[in-house]
Each structure stands twice: as structure tokens, then as C-alpha cells.
Specification:
alpha+beta; two-stranded antiparallel sheet; 9 strands
Length: 190
Amino acid sequence: MRLKVFMKTFVILLLMMSMMAAVVSAASVEEKRQAIRNTTNETLNEIYNVQPKARDVVANAAGYAAFSITDVKLGFLGGGGGKGMAVNNSTGQESFMKTGAVQIGLGLGVKKYKVLFVFKTEKALADFADSGWELGGQATIAATDSVNGDSLEGAVSVGPDTWMYQLTDKGLEASLTVRGIHYFKDKDLN
């Protein structure tokens, strides 16, 4: 009985996601880019409201990348995806990107969250924007920059010269888990 309910719920969610994808795909390339720009600005403003010092961190960085992500978890399987963009602060160059995630473990529900990566160096930004990333594991809120001893309040270190803020509808998360997430360029929008 539970399996039937699970399967029906799963099929309904898949149908809803495919209908949303069809509506989104009807927009022009420039409309899609503008929608991502708007979401990026919303993400930045939300993080700045929760963590005002992040504004200076982003302004003084080589660049940043902002994403809006939705995860769905039903039983032991889950997945998600989202869109976003990376921006080079020096040149203003935009790279439109996507995310995809797979989760295994017990759970049920939908989680929406926003992620902001801040890149201290051009190399870190280029590695992310040009090659994409696959992240796994867990980061802690107490992470510091081992070179300078700096700590970005509310952010965690997720790689060389790369910091991450993660925001849910409940606020800045104290423990940030990044499991099985792939960030890559959107071929259709670049």
C-alpha cells in the first residue's frame, strides 16, 4: 500500500516538473538569461539582508556565482536542480549555469535554497565557470582561510579561494551539507 502511494506521488511530481520545464523552455534565450539575472539579484539581496558583511566580501572578490536550487526527496531517493550564473567582477562577464543533484537516504519533502559562491581569485572563478564542479561531503560553519587566518562570517570554505553562503527559506544555515551536486555551464544560454 505504501509503495503505491509513494509511486503515485513520485509520478505526480515528475509530471509537474516536466510541465514546468515545458513552460520555461517556451521563453526566448534572452528572457531565460534575464530571469536568471533577476534570481541572482534576489539571492544576493537576501544574503546581504541576513549577512550584511557579505556585500563587501562579494564586491572585493574576483567574482561570484549565485544559484537557486530545489530538491525533492521521496523515500530513499531524491534529486534536484537549479539555475544560476557566475560573474567576473573585473570584466562583468556572465556564465549561465545549471545544477543537478542526486540524493540517497530516508526523507520526504521539497527544499528550496539559494547558494552564493565567492571566489577570491580569478583562477578559482575560472575553474568553476569553465570546468564546472562536482561537490560532495560536508562543510562546517567554523571554516577559516588557512593562509590568512580570515573567516567570512556566515560562509564556509568549500575549496581553494572559494567560500559559500547557503540560504534556505528559514535563513542562513549553520551546518551546510553539499552532497552529489554538479555545477556546469548551460550550453543553451552561453
